[in-house]
């Protein structure tokens, strides 16, 4: 019996593309026994042929012409690791329309145009898989789409950006300020030269949009995700959090409630008792709650050349199995509902706030009176003297509508006895 060979094309040979090449090479000897066929990289699309030739053993498979791949009927799988929206979107759409199955790691594209791409895949009975688009090497998309479909999922909460988690870990464990921790992350390669997408929460927001769409069976796009970064977090906030038995993490939170979907990425105080509190450095973790499974947590390397390549090659192997049994396109878009997305001001949260106020009699009562007027209840309070004139107050609220809380803040900021509101950070979970 002749060996079955499935031809694939790789779009991009950067960090992740090189990782995919390495993992496929490393799997060659066992591939046929594992999946029933051998995957052969027939073409690799690159911009700079000379630069790319130094990275691989077969420079003859390199091309800078997309049409060579699109028009080659022997290529069954296209692996897109170029990143960005265009030309990646055009290439993927053209590949699907040509009957080619697609694997991508492109979270930007899936978060904003996933529905369109999945519909195109279904129309052409192709697989469109994107495990690597969320949490790198951690399996989460496949569990949400397959293993956990016997559940009604109500919440996903996770640390899904390694750069910000590394920064907050250094601030927590080594008392660094944000700027110093970011500089270290950049030096060690955890942060990009332009870290905006990470530190402002955009990267995590895209991942939460993808997971919420799958988990709640209703389309959520990046534009629906309320995002806030970690640039305002100080070592003082972290010390106060420790006094309250908490750590600060950049959390993505998605909930399916009776009144709509809540989805956000924001720095939050997390109880030291919660499993996510011990997820440090560049590791990621996703915590899922379902009516049947109860709680499940997925933990591991959230990024990097080989962890991300691991997820991509896993998708490639799944497609090979589908090709061999003529069942590509069997798992399609799962967004069969149209649920409302809640406005941020209607979401209930607990808050930590740090206030510098006049150290005179009646100030606490005045602040409490304003909070009470807007139905903001105080759950905990710490007072420390900073200067002779100003006292530092830390207040943790009970659950309150965000709109009410922000209205109260506007009044507090205008009070003569309030010098400034230094920090406002949400608190994850219910009161203990």
Automatic annotation (TrEMBL):
<feature type="active site" description="Proton donor">
    <location>
        <position position="207"/>
    </location>
</feature>
<dbReference type="InterPro" id="IPR016204">
    <property type="entry name" value="HDH"/>
</dbReference>
<comment type="similarity">
    <text>Belongs to the homoserine dehydrogenase family.</text>
</comment>
<dbReference type="Pfam" id="PF00742">
    <property type="entry name" value="Homoserine_dh"/>
</dbReference>
<dbReference type="GO" id="GO:0009086">
    <property type="term" value="P:methionine biosynthetic process"/>
</dbReference>
<feature type="binding site">
    <location>
        <begin position="11"/>
        <end position="18"/>
    </location>
    <ligand>
        <name>NADP(+)</name>
    </ligand>
</feature>
<keyword id="KW-0560">Oxidoreductase</keyword>
<keyword id="KW-0028">Amino-acid biosynthesis</keyword>
<dbReference type="GO" id="GO:0004412">
    <property type="term" value="F:homoserine dehydrogenase activity"/>
</dbReference>
<comment type="pathway">
    <text>Amino-acid biosynthesis; L-threonine biosynthesis; L-threonine from L-aspartate: step 3/5.</text>
</comment>
<dbReference type="Pfam" id="PF01842">
    <property type="entry name" value="ACT"/>
</dbReference>
<dbReference type="GO" id="GO:0050661">
    <property type="term" value="F:NADP binding"/>
</dbReference>
<keyword id="KW-0479">Metal-binding</keyword>
<keyword id="KW-0486">Methionine biosynthesis</keyword>
<dbReference type="InterPro" id="IPR001342">
    <property type="entry name" value="HDH_cat"/>
</dbReference>
<feature type="domain" description="ACT">
    <location>
        <begin position="352"/>
        <end position="426"/>
    </location>
</feature>
<feature type="binding site">
    <location>
        <position position="107"/>
    </location>
    <ligand>
        <name>NADPH</name>
    </ligand>
</feature>
<feature type="binding site">
    <location>
        <position position="192"/>
    </location>
    <ligand>
        <name>L-homoserine</name>
    </ligand>
</feature>
<dbReference type="InterPro" id="IPR019811">
    <property type="entry name" value="HDH_CS"/>
</dbReference>
<protein>
    <recommendedName>
        <fullName>Homoserine dehydrogenase</fullName>
        <ecNumber>1.1.1.3</ecNumber>
    </recommendedName>
</protein>
<dbReference type="InterPro" id="IPR005106">
    <property type="entry name" value="Asp/hSer_DH_NAD-bd"/>
</dbReference>
<dbReference type="GO" id="GO:0009088">
    <property type="term" value="P:threonine biosynthetic process"/>
</dbReference>
<keyword id="KW-0791">Threonine biosynthesis</keyword>
<keyword id="KW-0520">NAD</keyword>
<dbReference type="GO" id="GO:0046872">
    <property type="term" value="F:metal ion binding"/>
</dbReference>
<dbReference type="Pfam" id="PF03447">
    <property type="entry name" value="NAD_binding_3"/>
</dbReference>
<comment type="pathway">
    <text>Amino-acid biosynthesis; L-methionine biosynthesis via de novo pathway; L-homoserine from L-aspartate: step 3/3.</text>
</comment>
<dbReference type="InterPro" id="IPR045865">
    <property type="entry name" value="ACT-like_dom_sf"/>
</dbReference>
<keyword id="KW-0915">Sodium</keyword>
<dbReference type="InterPro" id="IPR002912">
    <property type="entry name" value="ACT_dom"/>
</dbReference>
<keyword id="KW-0521">NADP</keyword>
<dbReference type="InterPro" id="IPR036291">
    <property type="entry name" value="NAD(P)-bd_dom_sf"/>
</dbReference>
């Amino acid at each position: 019996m002749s060996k079955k060979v499935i031809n694939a094309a790789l779009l991009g040979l950067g960090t992740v593309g090189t990782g995919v090449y390495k993992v496929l090479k490393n799997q060659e000897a066992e591939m046929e026994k594992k999946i029933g066929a051998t995957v052969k990289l027939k073409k690799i699309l690159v911009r700079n042929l000379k630069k790319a030739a130094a990275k691989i053993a077969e420079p003859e498979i390199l091309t800078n012409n997309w049409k060579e791949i699109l028009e080659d009927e022997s290529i069954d799988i296209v692996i897109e690791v170029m990143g960005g929206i265009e030309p990646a979107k055009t290439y993927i759409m053209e590949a699907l329309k040509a009957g080619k199955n697609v694997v991508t790691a492109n979270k930007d594209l899936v978060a904003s145009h996933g529905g369109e791409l999945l519909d195109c895949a279904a129309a052409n009975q192709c697989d469109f898989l994107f495990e690597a688009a969320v949490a790198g090497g951690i399996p989460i998309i496949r569990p949400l789409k397959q293993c956990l479909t016997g559940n009604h999922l109500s919440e996903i909460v996770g640390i899904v950006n390694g750069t910000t988690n590394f920064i907050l870990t250094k601030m927590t464990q080594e008392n660094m300020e944000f700027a110093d921790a970011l500089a270290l992350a950049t030096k060690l390669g955890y942060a990009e030269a332009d870290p905006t997408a990470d530190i402002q929460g955009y990267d995590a927001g895209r991942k939460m949009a993808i997971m919420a769409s799958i988990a709640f069976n209703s389309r959520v796009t990046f534009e629906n995700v309320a995002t806030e970064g970690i640039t305002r977090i100080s070592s003082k906030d972290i010390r106060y959090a420790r006094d309250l038995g908490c750590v600060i993490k950049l959390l993505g939170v998605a909930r399916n409630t009776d009144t709509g979907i809540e989805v956000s990425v924001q720095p939050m105080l997390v109880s030291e008792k919660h499993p996510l509190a011990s997820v440090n450095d560049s590791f990621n973790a996703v915590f899922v709650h379902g009516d049947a499974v109860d709680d499940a947590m997925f933990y591991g390397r959230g990024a990097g050349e080989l962890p991300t390549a691991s997820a991509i090659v896993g998708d490639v192997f799944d497609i090979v199995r589908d090709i061999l049994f003529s069942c590509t396109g069997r798992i399609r878009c799962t967004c069969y509902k149209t649920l409302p997305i809640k406005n941020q001001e209607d979401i209930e949260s607990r808050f930590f706030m740090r206030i510098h106020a006049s150290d005179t009699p009646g100030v606490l009562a005045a602040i409490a009176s304003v909070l009470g007027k807007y139905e903001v209840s105080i759950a905990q309070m710490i007072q420390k003297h900073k200067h002779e004139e100003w006292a530092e107050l830390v207040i943790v609220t009970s659950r309150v509508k965000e709109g009410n809380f922000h209205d109260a803040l506007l009044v507090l900021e205008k009070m003569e006895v309030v010098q400034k509101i230094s920090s406002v950070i949400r608190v994850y979970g219910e009161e203990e």
